[in-house]
Amino acid sequence: MITVINTIKLQRPITLAEARKIFLSTAPTYQGVAGRVRKNYILSQDGGTAGGIYLWKSRADADAVYTDSWRAFVRGKYGSDPVLTYFDSPVVVDNPTQSILSDE
Prior knowledge:
By secondary structure, the chain is α+β, with helices and mostly antiparallel strands.
């Protein structure tokens, strides 16, 4: 599995309430995407950086989504380019389902 942290430096800080409204407006587009296990929206406590933490089944699944058109969508929505950082995630503890996921 692959974890991708996406950060976007905002042109102006936003409040948690503003972030929630924006995130809820885009959340449905992230449902049912092949290979995506989970997405957590994030906002820095100073409101200046937003983004997401994604868990993917594979790097290929992630790369299939992070296209030029996705980057343009993010740029249009937030006014800045996303910065993606990739991590291998060989084991994930999922407390709500009481499960431990492994990439084997």
